[in-house]
Amino acid sequence: MNFHFLPAEVKFYDYFERASSNMLEGARLLQTLLDDFQNVEEMVAQITEIEHRGDFIVHEVTDLLPRTLITPIEPDDIQRLVSAVDDALDAVYAVAQRLLIYQVTDVRKPAKRLAHLIVESATELDAAIKGLRDKKMFNEVRERIVQINTLENNGDRVLYDGLTALVSHRDDVFDFIRWKEIYELLEATTDRIEDAGDVIQRVLVSNG
Fold first, then answer.
1. pLDDT reading at 104 higher than 90
2. Domain that includes residue 53, residue range
3. Taking a C-beta distance cutoff of 8 angstroms, is the pair 13, 68 a contact?
4. pLDDT attached to residue 7
5. Which of 108, 130, 156, 179 has the fewest CB within 10 Å, making it most exposed?
6. In this structure, what CATH number is given to the domain that contains residue 20?
7. Which of 46-55, 70-79, 83-92, 176-185 comes out lowest in average pLDDT?
8. Contact at 8 Å (CB) between 110 and 54?
9. Looking at residue 118, what DSSP letter applies?
10. Is residue 180 part of a domain?
11. How many CA atoms within 13 Å lie on the side-chain side of 52?
12. How many alpha carbons lie under 13 Å from residue 171 in its C-beta half-sphere?
């Protein structure tokens, strides 16, 4: 078995940053889609391509780990972090797919608000991950994680308000079912980003 040393160690940070940038790109596309709701099939196809790119990054990390003798952080945390970022992107992709499956023609305000929170969270996550290379940045990384947690809490409130509004206007059962699922998937994306933040927090404690 061929082992890698310092070049591979640095490469893990490259993969983290590629994964977070890719996730942020997917989040921004979803936000644009929900805000404008034009060229839906084309936009969903672009998000699908980004999701496939995320899967490839996870595969590359999974393949590199057993061939690396020295890693910058614990191997389990490497796998957890890249997987958590990918899980968030998978949730973005799931929302995009539901828009097509449920033949949505008009987007509701809570969905738009949740999409904006996702982009804010993904932006904070991207910045936090880019700060992992340098211990001098760890305090800023911690602040980013706190902001991610705050945004996730905001997402909980938007979900609650959105579901409450759905229940009060539930004459159309199909409309209730599809928007309940879309809202919950959007909010789950902020949960997955928070999961990635939790992994980063663990890394900071271990390496700070």
1. yes
2. 6-207
3. no
4. 52
5. 156
6. 1.20.58.220
7. 70-79
8. no
9. H
10. yes
11. 6
12. 1
